[in-house]
């Protein structure tokens, strides 16, 4: 099995991509690159079993409805609790599930800078669909939405602070911690890049998260949640430890 992890930024710069091959008892990082274009992501997706995309795959349903209503001058605040109404505008169903499961609050695709990456992500999804991929925003097809911070939390690793300025030492320590927790993961010549670039590191985590989704070791939407998740997207939160990835399914 091959998985592709993409840490998607709004532009090519700061976008990273990792390809991981899953073999009996071990996983090998076969490629790791930064400053990646959409065309290169699409080309790489042709050769893998699952793509883990670190980017919201949609917007909150209520937010989309608000924009449409506002365009026609017909906005109505249905909830007397303004704070609760704004929260429902800002966060998707899957964001709330991640919050409940981990205590981590994902960035709001409707009200934070992550929206710029999501604009690009929408175009990338269209390109992947045009290339013949099954783009199911619930994660049942070729592409699955991942969230490295939540995956790191699930796996008992540091999940915040390593992207801040001046945190290079802590970031390098996180790579060491990953290698200790997953001795079966072979970074090889890409170890240095992982330590220098948190974008590269996140793309590796995205590829590991894609593996969790591919072998049924990630949270899936219930039948009731699926209708909304098909539109808003669904974060494939890992359900167990890192060891699940290497022992969770036959090769």
Question: Explain this structure to me?
Answer:
- This is DUF429 domain-containing protein.
- InterPro entries: DUF429.
- With 251 residues, this protein is of the alpha/beta class.
- Helix content is 45%, strand content 13%.
- It has one domain.
- It has helices at residues 38-45, 61-71, 82-90, 93-102, 114-130, 148-154, 168-181, 191-196, 198-214, 223-232, 243-247, and strands spanning 2-7, 16-23, 26-34, 50-54, 143-145, 185-186.
In short, what is this structure?
This protein starts with a strand and ends with a helix.
Helix-strand string: EEEHEHHHHEHHEHHHH
- Radius of gyration of CA atoms, rounded to a whole number: 18 Å
Estimated structural class:
alpha/beta
The total count of strands amounts to 6
Mean pLDDT: 92
The biggest beta sheet is recorded as: 6 strands, mixed
- Strands of the widest sheet, in order across it, are 5-4-1-2-3-6
Strand fraction equals: 5-15%
| Shape verdict | globular
Detail the poorly predicted runs: none
Task: Assign a percent range to the helix content.
Answer: 40-55%
Helix count equals 11
Whole-number count of domains: 1
What is the distance, rounded to the nearest whole angstrom, between the alpha carbons of the first and last residues?
Answer: 7 Å
Topology, element by element:
Layout: E1 2-7, E2 16-23, E3 26-34, H1 38-45, E4 50-54, H2 61-71, H3 82-90, H4 93-102, H5 114-130, E5 143-145, H6 148-154, H7 168-181, E6 185-186, H8 191-196, H9 198-214, H10 223-232, H11 243-247
Parallel strand pairs: 1-4, 3-6, 4-5
Antiparallel strand pairs: 1-2, 2-3
